[in-house]
């Protein structure tokens, strides 16, 4: 046991930390309740959005989403800072108690200065007019107190509290991702973004691709930086990525306007159009990852933190992509049997999308053309347009070519492939991060192995919001 003077000082310091912890916990609880309120509101949010989309009230949708986005971001930043404070206070408390752990693990009866302290305590309690029975009960409680058991219970309570806070954080992040995505889609639909020339679009895409690559590396290295560096770097990643998305939005609109005059024929610019849609989605994933990691860093003594650290060490930025042959639609029409049962990819423009119900099972059909010929794409159980690939989209689609596909009435079609992020995440850092953010934001809805252009309209890029996928 510490000497009497040291004990008073220690108890005073612990009491001060406890007061700060109570204040911090109350603020966190208030934000947790707010996050539940947001979740409730978001259950009716899609119907409100759907109404505005039908009425094409893009300005109202944009203004609302921007206001909500700003408020959500402010609350997210407060939530992260409060959780950081909570962790720092817990660490300060642990450091104060650390020198006395050996004594704390010993029962009071076995400690050398307990008899003297016991006498002092009894005298002090008598001065406060405490009854003999009350004093004896208090002394018995202290002598029977088991610090190890108490610490175990405290840790269990702390773990449950961390789980609850984690769920609240994810609710904040998911709500923010929804409003941010709505903001993007509404911006493009307003049709007021400045025009971009082909050379400007190419330059912006080159910058965006490099930024994505650089930021994945930076996010991977963040766990080895000092706390001060981590905060600064994450704020930089967020702001730079946000600025790049704003640069890509006029590109999306300009590319779409060029595609209107190019009804079904495929031009070289259409490859850039496909890349544009993928880049915008990936950049938003990086934005959400920066906030998620900022939160994870506030919990250094938890399993979730350790999982992220281990993943950053074990995974790589790049991975060896399986070789999948790019086959022209003309070749599939002429020599379909040559590619039967093979995984291939095709490029073209989506001309039709059809959703049917066969034996109570949803089956999606999409038709893709190169301007001369057309093939069918099939996808069971999922509405293919829910991710935003709709009539008029340019797309690169990967799947298994089947000369006789039973889900296509035994006609030739491409059975759409799905990406296994759980497999990729074992070695690939961006895939691991995408998997962790699955309940917050899916850059690739339903994990469909497709890349497609960003298409304005009430049935296009806004679809993931309409279908509540974000």
What does this molecule look like?
This protein is an alpha+beta fold. The protein has 14 helices and seven strands. Strand 3 and strand 4 form a beta hairpin. The chain is elongated.
Gross morphology is: elongated
Helix percentage = 55-70%
Counting DSSP H or I runs of 4 or more residues, the number of helices is 14
Oligomer: single chain
User: What percentage of amino acids are in beta strands?
Assistant: 5-15%
Taking the alpha carbons of the first and last residues, their distance comes to: 56 Å
Describe the secondary structure blueprint for this structure.
Elements: H1 4-55, H2 58-97, H3 101-104, H4 114-127, H5 132-144, H6 147-189, H7 198-221, H8 227-260, H9 269-296, H10 303-314, E1 325-326, H11 329-335, E2 342-358, E3 361-369, E4 374-380, E5 394-405, E6 411-416, H12 421-424, H13 429-436, E7 450-452, H14 463-466
Parallel strand pairs: 1-2, 4-6
Antiparallel strand pairs: 2-3, 2-5, 3-4, 5-6, 5-7
Feature tags:
470 residues; alpha+beta; five-stranded mixed beta barrel; 61% helix
Quick overview:
The chain has 470 residues and is an alpha+beta fold.
